[in-house]
User: Fold these one by one.
Assistant:
Number 1:
Amino acid sequence: MNAVADIAGIVLGGLAAGTVLFIVSVGLSVTMGLMGFVNLAHGAFAMFGGYLIVLAMNRAQYGFAAALALGFFGTAALSVVLERFLYRRLYRAGELDQVLFTIGLIFIFIAGITIVIGPEHQTLQLPAALSGQLNLGFIAYRTYSIFLIVIGFLIALGIWLTFERTRIGGQIRATVDNRRMAESLGIDVDRLFTITFAFGSGMAGLGGGLGAEFLGLDPQYPLEYLVYFLIVVSVGGLGSVIGVYYAALILGVLNFALTLYLPKGGTIFIYALTILMLLARPRGLSGRKEQ
Amino acid sequence: MSKRMIAALAALAVSGGAPGAASAQEVKIGLILPYTGPGAELSPNMDRAIDLYQKLDAAQIKPFKLTIIKRDSKAPNGAAAKVDTQELLTQEKVDVIAGYIYSPDAIASAPVITAGKRLAVIMNAGTAFITNLSPYYVRTSFTLWQSSYVMGEQAAKYLHAKTAVVAYTDYPPGKDALDAFKYAFEHNGGKVIDAIPAGGPGATPDFTPFFQRAKDEHPNVLFVFVPAGDQATAVVKTYAALGMKAAGIQLTGTGDIVPDNMLQGMGDSAIGLITVHHYNADLDNPQNKAFIAAWKKAYGADATPDFTSVGAWDGIAAIVHALHATKGKIDDGAAAVKSLEGWKFASPQGPIEIDPQTRDIVMNEYLDQVYKGSDGKLHEKVLATFHNVKDQCKALAIGPCAPKK
Amino acid sequence: MSVAVSRAGDAAAPIANPAARALMRRHRLRWWEALPWLAGIAFYFAFPDYLSFGCDLIVTILFALSLDLALGYAGIITLGHAAFFGTGAYAVGMLASYNVWTEPITALLLAALAAAVIGFLSGLVLLRTAGLTLLMLTLCTMALLEQAANMGHAYTGGFDGLPSLPIAPVFGVFEFNPLYADTQYLFALGVLFACFVFVRTLVYSPFGQSLTGIRENILRMHAIGSPVRRRVLVCYTISAALAGIAGGLWAQTNAYVNLSALGLDRAATVLIVLILGGYGRLYGAFIGAVIYLALEHFLAQIYPTAWQLGLGLLLVLIALFARGGILGLGEALWRRYGGKLSQRRRDGPTAP
């Protein structure tokens, strides 16, 4: 009984941690896979959405669900503007120019949030129904973690179905696999990218708010967590939603278990696991695309 | 002092602004704080305290005029702080250096301070041995040994705990907190059964695995040190969400886990927490009452100062004292430091003194508990007061404070 | 490597082909190459209060130069170059802190050696990959080293670092000055000059040319039988050694070492500096470091809370309007308005 509860605690804790990373990172995987665009500023969109969500709840008294919707659509809208006017100019540039551009964007976001909102961190107040513990029968566990796991699963399922079952999903897959061929078949890649970029950024914004309970939220967010987002994307494989989902969950659970039993190892595990997984599968778990 | 402050406050309320400065001797203070990077959220609290002191105690400052030159120490690694210190001394020719939120900033700058021969007032950085690095350092903030040592003692004496688990941020202040708590707790009959390094000072780690581990070990108390900031909120939330209170584990810590300006954001999860610190905004003394009232008047009813603000307030008070004691020749660093040795001051945190041997602060520590007031807000009440607490690391000469061979 | 360099002698034989002559002319010294060094010496006399900043500038130039060798010439995109900087810094710092070795010049050679060992070993494993995978592997390797330095805090000082390092006088005569940093500045300038001469010689040697070939068309280099993997590994190791010297120099001029020597901050900053200046161009490291650090330093003095906005705007504008960084922009303008020199083939990354 006790062993069951221990294992369940590890699995649930790890899945929740992994799910947060998945929701924030999935958009990055798709846009990097689709256009080969190295968007290091992805975390800035997550921060922007997180601020929208938390401020809407704390200052404008929005409900949790309404605030999440605002975070998603607000971030998506911002990303479309930036994509149309700025990102688009750099599609054919080298990846290092893209790095320079997106790091510059991060600085602008950090300074912007600091100037407009202030340097202090923001606290998410969960609705009463999601705080506290939920009794699952064999174990009582943090309600919000279970909520996140379920939400993450639904999102992964939804995106997977979109990819596999819809026309636009087919176009995205075709473009990830072979962009030139897709273009010559008449797929409007630019439009496709705008849509996926908006969706991916919206997901990041959503993740910024949903994950604030764990990751916190302050102007340093885009730099503090950048490495984690990149780890999940690279281990999962570019352009692969399922790969990123598995990568996030596997890394989440393994890291949670190792941290629990060997806390003296600090953050070493996440990096060591990443190195091992990347050496074993250099193209990521999905192995979908030459990186 | 307190009367003068209240009088100044009244004058401020009438005039509604800073009194005009007459032609006076200008004293340049170089203020080094992280205005960007992970520490950026701490700087405004200190800036505001320094501004407020100049408004409220304008009479005290006369006939001098303080000019404050601000520099950004950026990421908490000492690099920018050191260059700032050098340029403030050589280029701006400041009379005094002040600030330093992070210990590496003060540590990296120590040789420059020593060579520059100017008083440097540390307003926050807490690593115990810093004041040994330069004879011109005077500290008005704290060391982790002061709060954590008392907490360790009281976990055994006041809470009657037999076992404890310590979770700490894996950098020097965290290790200081661990060492101090463990030393005091075990010398009073307790036993630390596990010490868990819980992530670094930057990104907020997921505290769930650390606290899950602590919960499985069933200690009487969980002692936590994390830097004040979003990690503190995450600690309190995770403690509540894992149902550790119901499991009979009391959360304790230094005051860093319940910083005054973040307390309301923690919600009811924070109720019942027991911490030891040298300041909380609810302290009942006339200086603090006036300080809080002036703060809310200047910065809004929801604004609250915290321990970093008090460190800055006391630091400016120390500089003003040295200014008078040296008759304006504060740029003579040795004389300025000498004038502060044994200096006593009625601070919002209670009486403080600068230890003449170590140039470190001696102050009260308070055992506090969080409760919900009749106004629906969270407050802290003082369960016990410990007077004239020295930095135990240097007092006991152990660990990193042991004399070097 | 030694084989490749010794072949440089063959290239001195008279060659009739004009294209080959043009290629040969490229490595000749030009008058403006003296400018950085004159500026460096002028800085010493003009800004005696800014020499601490000047030291940081020189260290960053040297670090960016080392990265240019890996990234600009061999095409290795890495986000973990601070691993070598940190190795060098800790080598110098720990030797000095425990009073084992404080002589600055030999200490830098030890720093180079330590970093070269780490570079060679990690390169042996990591350089099989490319793209994002390589980027993440270098990043994670650096993070592992950083965490190891944190866990060994009893020896490394952890986050707080090792303070007040004793550094012996240069040549046994010139003491480091903790306040004005004048000796440190001249010492650092000398080290940078020596390293630069080495790098310049290297990239114009046949070895350096083969690296450029690898960067531009790796398949063709394989096809002509060039030992691609070995050359890339050698280049990576040399680059690591230079980064180690930069790190050691940083520890010496600052008299401390702490975890920031190893962090992502440092690795990302040097990458930005190099891209900003223009990679694969030798002088990109100089331009990028001067512009980036000077802007950061002086904006932060005027706007301590908002300087990142200005810096961010600069990066975005350069990325949008100046492919190949500031030097790339300069070359484009030169080709457009500079008249006859437009035919001269440049040694940039977009060369055909």
Note: The longest helix of chain C spans residues 228-254.
Number 2:
Amino acid sequence: MSETTAATPPVLEVRDLVKDFGGLRAIDGCSLSVQEGTITGLIGPNGAGKTTLFNLITGYFQPDSGRVFTDGEDITSLPPHGVFQRGICRTFQIPREHGTMTVLENLMLVAPDQAGEQFWNCWLRPGAVRAQEREIRDQAMEVLDFVNLTHLADEYAGRLSGGQKKLLELARTMMARPRLVLLDEPAAGVNKTLMKKLAENIEYLRRERGITFLLIEHDMELVMELCDPVIVMSEGRRLMEGRPEEVRNDPTVLEAYLGGQYGTA
Amino acid sequence: MQQIDLARTAFLFLPLFLLGLLVLPGRAALRIVLALAIAALVAFALPLMLDRGTLTYLVSFSTMAGIYAILSLGLNSQWGLAGHVNFGVAGFFAVGAFTSALFTTTMPEGALAAYSQQAFGLQWPFLVGVVMAGILAAIVGFLISIPVLRLRTDFLAIATLGIAEVIRFIFQNERWLANGPQPMRGIPRPFDCLFKDPACSWLPSGAAEFLSPLSPRDYVFFYLIVVSLILAVVFIALERISRSPWGRMLRAVRDEENSAAMNGKNVTRRRIESFVVGSFIMGVGGAVYAHYVVSIDYSHFNPLFATFIVWVMLMLGGSGNNKGAIIGAFAVWGVWSGAAFMIDAASPALQLISDDLPSRGAYLRWMLVALLLGLIVLYRPQGILKERKKVSDFMPGDTGKD
């Protein structure tokens, strides 16, 4: 926030982030920002550092240098649950559902500030815990309805198909009432029909709930349809940012993907 | 029916009632009525059907199994709910036992002090001793958990195993603390005056008259009530919190830690909580054990007897299921105790194989327990009662089937 005149700080700002894994520099001075109310796409070749960037933002890894801000507040050194409490949540590239719990309880788990999470409340204030559980259950059923998984509410989450797990991942973020959702390849391994549904859901959430999205995606069709702007990452840094059609036609982007000899892949 | 049998019946009723509540199916109201009826019937029938020695054996068997069930519940809070591989059950068990002993015994004086040393002896009541045992074990658990819970699975196992051995060696070597290698004796038994002559002064004369045929050897009949009640309280308290949003969070952390963290759960804190709750329960188990055996020393707390058998109990009963933890404790203790009779009976045959085999028969029991563990892991890894599908009982049940 160099210029103090800026109306609102971006919902997410990443500044000069660096992360080394041994001799490998996964993130190399990456800076980018995500504006409130957008669906920002994050693309780039494999190994560009997109998922690592997500891990740094959400506090799963600590960066070697650089900072992460949300609404101007420094969240670099917060643990994952601290980042979550600032209204940022994420999904995983490979769904990480809690397979030994039902779909419904997978969602109920995510609801923040549950009285019953302090075990003494279960002894001392069972009434309050019960009332809140009812509320959270109803909220979870609504979310399930939204992603068309109601019929699977009582099924073990581990038994869902790959596509259904992707929907569950998105559904979990909705339970958190977030401001910013980081989606890591939401459409990978999802069939066309489901992908369409997924895209509609994301667009609906942005429009109706004002949730900002930053999504990693390899499916260009989806990116072109959904995202604006699109950020391209390559070799651990931001290569360029622009409208989807600009990015699509940019020679440096093609070069990053195909290694300077495009056409031969 | 003689008066002594009738008196025993009176003592058997409550433990049987609680057992009935635990194992009978059906709705709460129906279960209570059914358990009352069956407990009354069985409490009358047992002294008639079994000779007195056998009945006493059965009661002391159940008492010991009940103590193991408390340990098994403690382990369930750590392993079953949160996935901690704690191979140091013996350590918390020992801390609880010695703590309660120190708080309830009398400090040796005069000539006795030369033979028996201990850090202090406060003569506080039994229940205070039990609570202090839990608290101290929980504190030890908390202090250990800070460095140790950074570890996972087999590394955690090695660390906890080591810590339990350290605790055991402390009690073995520090004479000033709890009489070192010598046993700590004279741990008071609650209300043991019930079985003495003359009986407790506060006892109404009718009750004293009723109990008069019982000798101090029958004390275990009373202690079974104490153990059952404490077990029931531990079970209900743990069941409450494990089938709640707290328990849901632990299951989430156990199965997919990163995802739980990304969904806003403070993973480290929850892992510590479950470890500390488990340590508290194990400490309580230690106290209940100390007041039962009256004299304890370091050798009671070796890993085989106080850690691994508890693991087999929990795995047989069903990791993650509190009811299963109790059933597993009784089942494995039954196998263990039954094996002693079996090996006795088989000793002529063993003699034929090798002369000194009967005298080594005790080791065969371990083989049996090990075999049992192997069979569980191969054929029923989820245990007798598997973990329930729905975690939270606080959630209204109209969508859940299980």
Note: The CA atoms of residues 45 and 257 of chain A lie 5 Å apart.
